[in-house]
């Protein structure tokens, strides 16, 4: 019995150590990730037209001891973008599409950035839309990729090739199993943005008029 417990403990410790390993120590190509680490989740996500779920957004700043935390729900629609509705600590909506970013706080527009005027906005949008569906081909066009898996769990790393993207983040990690569960963006100053996703529901059907209406906010 003691031997069995010891073996189980060693296996558990090995599993935790392997999963906690630095993904950036494991360079990979997009093709290799799709053939191994991301084969199952990418195949499943490729069929989804709409994803809905909850998110928690934590901003970890070096000069502030406690992270700034917000939470709410999101809707991702393929070929449209992502609709973020923050509910706590205040009501805010951010719509991110290939056309740009629009933000409304407490019902009033506070920010609008067009991708035509700010090319970096289009790159940011492409990255986030690719992350939601694990579109490795799109990610591979802009980033050096890394990754490893342990059982059903996986983690991939991204480092921008273009200097302009370094102004957004220096590196990113994406973690999950069946779904994308966490995205961590680290900037050149060491500050981190952590986005945790949960309760994700899929739909292979085209979005209804009510969902499409949410993205009207982002029209020029």
TrEMBL record:
Give the highest taxon in the source lineage: Bacteria
Q: Does the keyword Glycoprotein apply?
A: no
Q: Which is a GO BP term held by this UniProt record?
A: protein transport
Q: Which residues form the signal peptide?
A: 1-20
Tell me the InterPro entries matching this sequence.
LolA/LolB/LppX, OM_lipoprot_carrier_LolA-like
UniProt keyword annotations, A-Z: Protein transport, Signal, Transport
Describe its assembly: Monomer.
Q: What is this protein called?
A: Outer membrane lipoprotein carrier protein LolA
Give the organism the record lists: Povalibacter uvarum
Q: What is the lineage of its organism?
A: Bacteria, Pseudomonadati, Pseudomonadota, Gammaproteobacteria, Steroidobacterales
